[in-house]
Design a protein that fits this description.
265 residues, mainly alpha, 10 helices, 3 strands
Length: 265
């Protein structure tokens, strides 16, 4: 942190610290809501239409039920998402600058378009998360459902587009990835593939549960939902690797990024 007395500096924070705050808030919010719902609202939070048809027991609440169906879970989740939004938009803008510093040659316009598309997709993902957070499935199922679909589609598209842009920019013009870049890219690919696999498995389990009301299927669906949420958070956690050593400072009438050390070894 800095002060105005330090060469006119008003504020200073490393991207790493900002990213860790951004990651901790939704992680804590989701974990708190799930655990609290299991301990204090187990019967109602795990109840589905199958309980009334065939008395099928469930053991885990869905994400929608955990974050929006009960208090204090609903309040904790909304506060966490509200607080983490500003850093996410800030980092989204930072990633556009971060990616477009590379020139990939004759196809640079396409590359810049994809970098911009990543920023747009990520911004829509954040906005959709805000909407589905503040309008629960109990309050308005249609809006919550459409917001969730928008969130998931833009999230998966963003992760794919981000992987493409990251590798393209850092391997163009015969450039070789640094060890840190390789580490970040491998994490991105692994988390994206795991995330989208869990997402499709969750869809299958949800449809199967609605059709057959089998024991344990809805709980497996909920577990896949948790994995989708936490791997999404982990994917955004690669920000800590990508922006290592980068400091954002605010001085009078300007916002500048200073690199206090080499980003990559």
């Amino acid at each position: 942190m800095g002060s105005q007395g330090n060469n006119g500096l008003l504020f200073q924070i490393t991207i790493n610290k900002l990213a860790k705050i951004m990651l901790f808030l939704p992680f804590f919010g989701a974990a708190f809501c799930i655990i609290w719902s299991i301990i204090f609202d187990f019967e109602s939070s795990t109840s589905t239409h199958c309980r009334f048809r065939s008395k099928v027991k469930n053991y885990l609440p869905s994400i929608s039920s955990a974050i929006g169906g009960y208090t204090p879970q609903r309040y904790v989740w909304r506060i966490c998402i509200a607080l983490h939004c500003s850093p996410r938009f800030f980092i989204t803008a930072g990633y556009y600058t971060f990616n477009t510093q590379f020139h990939v040659g004759t196809r640079n316009n396409i590359y810049k378009f994809l970098a911009g598309l990543c920023a747009i997709l990520n911004s829509i993902e954040i906005l959709a998360l805000v909407v589905l957070t503040n309008i629960s499935s109990i309050e308005n199922f249609s809006i919550h459902e459409n917001s969730f679909i928008t969130f998931m589609v833009t999230s998966e598209c963003y992760m794919l587009c981000s992987c493409i842009v990251f590798k393209w920019g850092r391997t163009s013009n015969n450039r070789q990835m640094t060890p840190k870049e390789k580490k970040s890219f491998h994490y991105k690919i692994a988390l994206f593939l795991f995330n989208i696999s869990c997402f499709f498995i969750a869809i299958y389990l949800y449809l199967r549960h609605n059709s057959y009301c089998e024991a344990g299927v809805y709980s497996l669906f909920s577990a896949c939902e948790y994995l989708v949420v936490f791997t999404n958070i982990a994917f955004h956690g690669t920000t800590v690797i990508d922006f290592e050593g980068t400091v954002n400072t605010i001085a009078p009438s300007q916002l500048v990024e200073d690199k206090i050390s080499k980003r990559y070894l």
